[in-house]
Amino acid sequence: MAEDKDQILADFQSITAIDDVGEAFSHLENCNWDLMTAIQNVMPQETSPVEPMVQNDFSNSSNSNLTRWNSSGLENTFAPIPSTSSSNSNIIDLTADITPNSLKKDNKEIIFNIHFNQQVYTITLPSSASVGDLKDRIFGLTKVPICRQAIRGWPPAKIHEAQLSSTVLSSLDLSIENELILIDLTDDAYGEENFEIARRFAETFTLNIIQQPEGKSISLPFPGEKTILDVKNDIYSITDIPVRHQDWTGWPVGSNNTTTLAQSGIELQHNLILRSSANDKPKNNSKPSRSNNFVNIDSDSSDEFEDASDFNADDDFFSDSPAQPRLKHLIPDNTDDETLGSIQFVENYTQRYGEPHPVFFQGSLEDALKEACHKPARDRKLLAIYLHHDDSVLTNVFCDQLLRCESVMQTLMQSFILYGWDLTHESNKNLFLSSISACVGVTASITVRNIPVDRLPAIIIIAKSRSTCEVLSVINGNVGVDDLLSRLMETVEMYSEHIRVEVREETERALREQVKYEQDMAYQQTLEADMAKEAAKKQKELALAAERKRLESEKAEQEAKKEIVRLQAENALPDEPNESITENVTKIRIRTPQGENLERRFYGHDKLQALLNYVTSKGFPVGEYKVISGWPRKDLTTINPTETFKSLNLFPQETVILEER
What is the 3-state secondary structure (H, E, C) of 519-568? Predict the structure, then answer.
């Protein structure tokens, strides 16, 4: 067979000139390795009603008809083509004349709006046409080869069928007018049309189921690969409604038991209504023979047998003695509140069996599970669920003797959280099965359901391992006190050994977290100290900058003042005598601290203030510098500045020295 496929593949590539092996392989797979069908799908021009080659071949045949088969399998007959014209109007479609009347019936027209390259192409086809016909028409309008056409917008439940060219349009649940998107696939994107199906198979669908007439709500997650029959079987394990008695409302039109959730077209969140058709059937008044045997029915045989509980429902009916008034059940029928049911259970249990009795947790099963299991490993306890049933002959002995034992009560109090529930009524049993399925898992629900009535009451022990809760042990009611106590102690020891590992891991984790916390605190303190140092450094730099700015400002101010004084002194200088004037003129030479010499001529009757103004104008104010005469040495700045040069013997020339004060 492999050699035949290789030969077909080679022939297909040779005829269609498709070099891509993957693309050619995909075309042949879609056509179940029918070579001719695959060639027709890839070469749509062969189905075109008018071609020059055909016209040339038949141009000389005046009485012959051109017959072709379209992709729907109907024979199309065309009138002969005159040799003098190539117009399409000369071709007459006689398909309608040869189509059987049975095919014409209900053959409604379907409108397709094809969105491609920002344009919309409208195509009208009869419902009896195939997907291949639609692709042919698309090729004629868009010139996109069939092998490159990826069409999006099909109904989600029919995506797989829509990929086959032979699929008839009427089977796709289409409306009268449909919006489709055409994608021209490249070599790299080939096969992208199956992406939506693959994505939905990987999704998780949440089914919100309302069970009527009770009004009970069940919310369950299912993978997309689950079929509707799988869902029904799982619901049977929770609700005790056999698949054949399940009456559903809300599944999409066209879906069946073999349809997967991914193919059904439902959203990720979907609402359904479930009823039991058995409630609508007339009751059988025949009296079955009394039997104490329990028949256990699993989900696989749900279609052939009724629940075994139906055979034992009316034991009192067959009693020879007068009917005795039954004791009040621990939980009334049709209780819809777990917390209220738990409180009534404890009250009725105490009223019936008196003191002493074990301490039962009052609240919902979820609250009991949190109190027992959802804590740190060292504080964790086991959850013991006592399942009561008034129709079991073991019940009174178990409650009067085993649960009254002081050792049993002490063991339950020290190592367990004890939760009680009455399974006598079917409604309360279903409520508990739904609750334990949601809190612990479907496996726990199946475990409870599979406990026969003649083994009740029972104690189910649930423990948390790592991050999940699971059933650790089941103790049926047909045990003695020593056996019950031994089983409880063994479970505690086994769980203690197991939990010791988690305690050690939590301790090590706590130590690591403590070390990490201390390291973080030390790092934070170091970071804060560094930040404080950095802040102090910045503050100091800011202070220094401010001081520097202040000094510079003061210096600038002083310089400005000096400049003003210099300019005033310069403006107050008397005119210097001309070089041609020699009488009554003295020449004063001034030696600066930098070793430079300044020289200026004054009149003999000029005052000493003129000399002081001169040195001030040169940048040596008398407030900072002394003017010292040569001999005898004296500070001229201390002398009356109104004295003249002649009176001070600074005539006809003199050298003075500038010294810093």
Answer: HHHHHHHHHHHHHHHHHHHHHHHHHHHHHHHHHHHHHHHHHHHHHHHHHH
